Structures are given as structure tokens and as C-alpha cells.
Protein 1
Amino acid sequence: MDTRILKEKILELKEKRNAVIVAHNYQIDDVQEIADMVGDSLALSRYCASSTKDIIVFCGVHFMAESAKILSPEKTVLLPEIDAGCPLANMVSVEALREEKKKYPEAAVVCYINTSADVKAECDICCTSSNAVKVISSLKEKDILFVPDQNLGSYIAKMVPDKNIILWKGFCPTHHRVRAEEVRKIKELHPDALLLVHPECRPEVVELADFVGSTKQIIDFAQQSPAKKFVIGTEMGVLHKLQKDNPGKTFYLMSPGMVCPNMKKTSLQSVYNALNEMKYEININEEIRLKARACLERMLQI
Ligand code: CIZ
């Protein structure tokens, strides 16, 4: 079907179903364009929770749709592509985490938002890449068991040196694949550009950055900065908003490999199918949901 017609049909169905469509910053351009809101996973889940619509179509990956369900249990949450998972979130299981917790009984257990609901249910508090430093600084415990991203964990350890961060060996394949050597080359190619990097990148890459932040923080920084050129060190989906909102500025991707295959699974056709066939519905066991919600809410209180 023609893209324009497909977009019209999605919007018609959205009205008919009384639905809201949200898209993560890493989604393809066409999907970002039909969304009611584009943003990071927490902002989207909070937006969904404040919406009066009955149905949420979450264009993102599995843990993100789960976060929306955790905060909006009364709504129907649909993930258009059921196998759009997050390899980073899949690097920690409940069983492995329980074993690790036994080794550090005094430690606070902190999870990155990129975790499943059942892992969140096992943790004391959650954090995002925007607020990780603030969340960890606020804890009374010195020892922090941080899951699952070793690179974000290393960044926190550098920013909050009085804490002892126990790292889990997880990583985001899209961010972790980029090495410092490649980044030095792109910096040489664009010496007048600022390098904005996500903390899921390796510490050797973060070391080279002019600014380190979450997708939202990178987008805000580029908008507010008087600089005209930027090398972007996160998934390529953010380029859509950066280029749309800053026509006078130039953006280069830090590496052509910064493409998350899971985020790219969702297409206009799958959004249409989701609304038409009411699939794929995300449900969470209520006991797990309540524990995971408490973990998220502790973060929201900070
Ligand atoms: O919190 C999110 O949505 C993720 C995974 C990254 C970011 O920096 O926004």
C-alpha cells in the first residue's frame, strides 16, 4: 500500500479504536511521523499513563511496552512487532540476578530501564540514562549492584566515585560495537563538530566525547548549542528529529553501524496490523507488575 494511504488508514483506525501511538527516538522516520509522541522510553510511558485513550500502540522494543503496561495496567498495550526485543535487557535473567544478589547482600540493586518487568521486580530502584547519576548519588548504600549495562555502569562509577559500582557484563550491541579508533577517524574528518555520545558506548569512546547523555539530552544539547556541526554517538533514529528541528545544523552519525535491528522491525504496516488486529497485547503477572512498579516509582520520587 502507498505510504500516504497507509498513514491515513492508521490515523483513521487510531480514532476508531480510541488509541494513542507512541514511538521511541530510535524508530524509523515514517513511524516517528505518525506518532502522537516521540521520546525516550520513560517519557513515553509517563505520557501513556496520563493519556485518556484506551489503547496504547508502543512502537519500540518489548521492555518499553512492558514499562507502559506497568504504569497503565487498565489500558491495552500493543507492541506491533512481538519479536522486537532488546539484546541488552535479555542479558540479565531473574535467576542469574538472584544468584548475584546473594554475593552482595549489603548492596543496593539498581536496574537500568532496559530490563524486563520480572528483573525490575527483583531490584530496589530503576534508572534511565538521563537520571542514572542522580539516582545512584541519592542512595545511602556504598555498594551498588548495577544491571545490566557495563558501559553505563562504568560511566556512573566515574561520575559518582564514592560508590562502589558492581558491574554486570551486559552491553547494547549497537553502542558497544564502536571502538575509539573509528571515533578518532570521524573526529579527524569533522574537526569543527562536537561529539555527543550515549553512555551505553564503551568508556574509551565516552572519553572522547564533548557531551555524554541520553537520547533526549543529546537532542536538547544539539538544539541549544550555538555549534553548527555534531557527530552523533547513538542509534541513527535520533537523526530524524535532530535534522527536522535544526535545519541550519549538520549531523554526522559516529559510525554507520549504529543501527538497532530490533528498533527497525516496526514498520507502518506493522502499526496498521497492530491496530487492525489488536496485536500483540502485552500483559504482566500482577504480582510482578506491582513489584516492578514500586521499583520504577522509587526512581520517579527522586
Ligand atoms: O531510555 C531510553 O529510552 C533509552 C533506551 C535510551 C535513551 O537514552 O533514551
Protein 2
Amino acid sequence: MSEQCDHNCSSCAQSQDCTEKNNTPQDFLKPPHEMSSVKHIIGVLSGKGGVGKSMITSLLAVSLKRLGYRVGILDADITGPSIPKAFGIREKAAITEYGTLPVKTKTGIDIMSINLLLPKDTDPVVWRGPLIGQIVEQFWTDVIWDDIDYLLIDMPPGTGDVPLTVFQSIPIEGILVITSPQELVSMIVQKAVKMAEMMHIPILGLIENMSYFTCPDNGKNYAVFGESHIEEIAAAHRLKVLAKLPIDPSLTAACDEGSIEFYVDNPLASVAKTLQQTKGEQNMKIAVASENQKIAEHFGHCRNFNIFQIENDKIVSSTSVDNPGHKPGFLPNFLHEQGVNVIIAGGMGAGAIEIFQEKGIEIIIGASGDATEAVNAYLEGTLKSTGSVCQDHKHHDECGSR
Ligand code: ADP
């Protein structure tokens, strides 16, 4: 290896006896299960444990699912598997004669984790590194990842031999690096960034978790873990900062209760859209509960649904579908069958909200005015859900309760 080595073998004219060149990671790639079909594989990496890597992997999976993709999570964090808990999964993975089947979450995200195989999820994994590495490899080679658009890998923390095995054996397309503002973590995250660079895997961006805490009493932000260094790290490695997440007790509660799938105002929604753009895929359907062209006040009793087809953040076509009639629980399923990913409405009943959440459809409520303008505002990121739910008022039934 020459002193000027930038670890980019593809552009290097070094002779074949370069040890670095002969050890390029692609040599160790393992084939997936023959019944698997996976389009994109994204690794979620952190320099150390406890910075929120698993929570961010989960939220990102939920956001991608809400955009209409088929999503899987390969939990490669064998010694600290927290993905099944965040989704409230209690059943075990089925081992069939064809291969191991992931467990589906309530909205249909495929999950494989060591905790889905262990008899008790409190059993510790006291195995040495090579064995742990083999298990992760098997999660790739022996599990049937059926028709997955995005497979997210919750990487083992750190830069040791297990993440190295994952990088070498699974064809990861890109990496998201998660960090928190502590100086110590900043130093360690640079190791993670350098590791990804050495493995020739593109880093899609950095996400800073636990950036600040917003005091509910005075609305001020406090840098609980110290001032952020994320912009400096990003500049030093010419990377993008994709998101900064606050410390939010409701996120902790959602992970603990197993309800991360139904977390409203998902802070990873914009990162999912960025990923879509990076992969050149941005198709989605947005439905607006309307009175002709105006947003209806009450979801269940709207006159029609204006359904907009979106490509690359632009409306490419729209159709109006008459409200087929309000029966409790019917309309959310009807819109799901139309392939809708986002619903915009005025008021909506708690029952309808629940069904949309179960289907992984993003809900924007409290909107008013022109339907097309609202969709454009949503695409620009300026239309936010007020979260206003029609309950216990005279329109209760009209708003789509179960
Ligand atoms: P890692 O995968 O990096 O080890 P986890 O995702 O398991 O970390 O997160 C550790 C704990 O911190 C979990 O209980 C999680 O719910 C909580 N947590 C992570 N990020 C946040 C946040 N932004 N606000 C509140 N709690 C968080």
C-alpha cells in the first residue's frame, strides 16, 4: 500500500501486489437466500452504543413504509437487540424447510433479530465475535427477504470485527452514521466514518440524535449533552447532516411500549424522502378529503377524495374519486387499497386515525383551503399536522370513527 493511499482501489494504478488492493471487501460478499429479493440495503452505524441507532433505524423503516415501500430490518446488533421491542413483537421467527422467515410488524415491516430466535428475550448472547459475525451473515444468507425495497441494517455498534464482517459479507449500498453531541462520541464517530470510507461504502449522511432538549415550560432549547460538533465533522468529511433529533421522552416511551410504528410526526420522514431522491425513486399517492376542490372539514363525510400522483416531489396527475359512503372503519381501508401513502383532511375521528396508522399511512389533519395548494405545501415541507382529532363532538361519526 503506498503512502498516498486514499483507499479508493477503483481509481488506483498501484501494482497487483498491494495488500490493500488484494483485500478489497467485495471479495467476501455472501449471496442472499435464493428466494430473497432486495433492492436497496442501507446500514445504520454509530461509533458506540446508546446513541439511538436502533430507534433511528426503526423510525426510518416506518417512514419508508409510509412512503409505500416494502421495508425490512436486519437487526445485526446481536448483543443489544432492541428492534423487536420497539415494534412490540412477541412472536418468534419461523424456521421452515425453505429458510427462516422474518416476523412481520403490524404494518408489515419484515424484522429479523436474534431476539426472535432466542427462547427468552432476556437471555444474554455470550458468544465470541466470530460466532456473532456468522449469525449476522446467516440473517442475510438464510433468511427469506421476500420482495424488499429497502433493507435497513441496524449495525453492531463500534468499529470492531462484527461490523467489519457485516461490511464485508453484505452488499451494503450506503451508510447513515448516527451520533450524539458529546465530544467523546464525536471522536468515536469519526472512526466510524473512516471505517466506512476504508470499506468503500458511500456515507449517505450524518444524523445527530439527542441534539437538544426543548423545555416544555419556556420553549427554549438546551444542549444537554454539550454543544454540537456535527457540522465540523460533516465539513471535514464532506458529508451532509440529514437531521438533528431532540431528546424527546415520547420517543423513549414509544420504544418502551412497542408503539414506534404509530409515532405521529416522525422526525425521520424527511430523511426517508432524501433516501428516495438519492435512489431516484419518488412515487407516492396523496389523498385529500375534499368538497370538490376544497379540503373537507370532516374526513368521513367529505364529498370526494382528490388523489394526487407524485413523482420526484411534483404532482404529475390527479383524479377525483367520490366518497363511496361512510361506514365505520371502511374509508381508511378503501384508501389503502387505492395505494394512498398520505391522507390530508380537516377533522378526523380517532378510529380512522388508528386504522391509517395501522396501515402505515401518514396523516395530516387540521388542514383547510385548496386541496392542490395543500399538497404542494406538503411537498415543500410546510404543511404540518395540527394533530386535531374530532372526538366527543357532534361530528364524531362524520369524521370517520370506527
Ligand atoms: P443504540 O441502538 O444506539 O444502542 P437505542 O436506539 O437502543 O440506542 O436507544 C437507547 C435508548 O435511548 C432507548 O431507550 C431509546 O428509546 C432512547 N432514545 C434514543 N434516542 C432518543 C431521543 N432522541 N429521545 C429520547 N429517547 C431516546
